[in-house]
Design brief:
The protein is an alpha+beta fold and about 350 residues long. It is built from 10 helices and 11 strands. Helices cover about 30% and strands about 25% of the residues. Helix 2 runs antiparallel to helix 3.
Length: about 350
């Protein structure tokens, strides 16, 4: 029975045997026992403890009975239990169980119950304190792959107007910095000079090293003050802006003036286009992904990410092919090797829909 045995059950044999039955039911492999059989045992135990006036043991038995119920039945059962044993400090655990059941669909009520229980039971309400700390944990996420965000290939289109969705909880402000890394092109080979291997995962420490060591400038700063809301409530909003010039950037996400996340992002308007017809044998050129116009500036070509340099084949029988008519594989603008747990939804592994940037 562990630490509950003596103070709650008085080390009685009944509680020891009952615990063995509960474990057998939960295991249900070595010593199968039916739910109704266990329920009958627990109900007899409950009657015994109530007759003896051992309310702490009775409350713990009520929890075991509640575990045999599901959905609304469990919730209603625990509500009755919480009222019947409200004088016991351990009853805060009953309320914590109710709050856990209400969390997904009735969070406002759950928070109200938790705060009232925490006030009533004080230091004994550990479960309620942990529940409130969890649901009020500050949180922010920027989602670049919203339906409003349209892009071709694996980079943002410079100068295009984008709208990013912001999802937050218990935050007062959000700030986004786009820091351009000077002398770094889309190959990312220049990162090696700062101790960063572009072929490996570029994580938090590597990005901090880049910002501290590599020549850079802050090309764009976005800031939005967020409305005051209940600390447990998750809310959505959006922020609209124009992307800076082509290049390689470190994007920073700040919440409540505290750095939350960094990601490596690319800005480029180019893609590799290869024309194959009956008369033309694989002529390659870089073109603008929106207009289809050729790009000849070597510095701008250097901003084209590898994901857009995969051969784009256009096989046609007609004499004229307009590059702007070619549809390339779509993907969310992303960092190199980003963390799946990131606060940015800005990654290669995103499955959300994307399309062409609005100018």
């Amino acid at each position: 029975m562990g630490r509950d045995s003596k103070p709650i059950y008085g080390d009685d044999l009944l509680s020891v045997l009952t615990e063995a039955l509960v474990n057998a039911y939960e295991d249900n492999y070595y010593r199968p026992i039916k739910k109704e059989e266990l329920r009958e045992v627990l109900q007899r135990n409950l009657d015994f403890y109530q007759q003896q006036g051992r309310r702490r043991a009775a409350l713990h038995t009520e929890w075991k009975l509640a575990d045999l119920l599901e959905g609304e039945k469990r919730l209603e059962f625990l509500r009755k239990v919480s009222k019947f044993y409200e004088e016991l400090p351990e009853n805060s655990e009953t309320i914590a169980r109710i709050c856990a059941l209400l969390r997904d669909k009735q969070l406002d009520e759950a928070v109200q119950l938790a705060k009232a229980g925490e006030q009533r039971y004080g230091k004994a309400a550990v479960g309620l304190h942990n529940f409130l700390a969890d649901v009020e944990q500050p949180y922010i996420q920027v989602d670049w792959s919203s339906p409003e965000l349209k892009t071709e290939g694996n980079a943002f289109y410079p100068g295009a107007t984008y709208r990013a969705l912001i999802r937050w909880k218990n935050m007062k402000s959000v700030k986004i910095n786009f820091i351009r890394l000077k002398g770094v092109d889309a190959s990312l080979n220049a990162l090696r000079a700062y101790g960063v291997n572009p072929d490996m995962y570029i994580g938090k420490e590597a990005l901090a090293r880049l910002v501290s060591r590599a020549p850079h400038e802050t090309a764009l700063t976005l800031r939005k003050e967020l409305p005051t809301l209940p600390a447990h409530r998750t809310t959505e909003d959006s922020i609209e802006f124009k992307m800076p010039a082509a290049g390689v950037y470190v994007a920073e996400l700040w919440g409540n003036d505290r750095l939350m996340e960094r990601e490596l992002v690319l800005m480029s308007r180019g893609t590799l286009f290869e024309l194959k017809t009956q008369t033309v044998k694989g002529k390659k050129t870089y073109v603008d992904v929106i207009t289809g116009q050729p790009i000849t500036d070597p510095q701008e070509i250097a901003t084209v990410p590898d994901e857009r340099k995969n051969t784009i084949l256009v096989s046609a029988t007609r004499a004229i092919i307009r590059p702007m008519q070619k549809r390339v594989v779509k993907s969310t603008p992303t960092a190199r090797c980003t963390d799946p747990g990131s606060a940015w939804n800005l990654r290669r592994c995103s499955t959300r829909a994307t399309a062409t940037p609005t100018m």
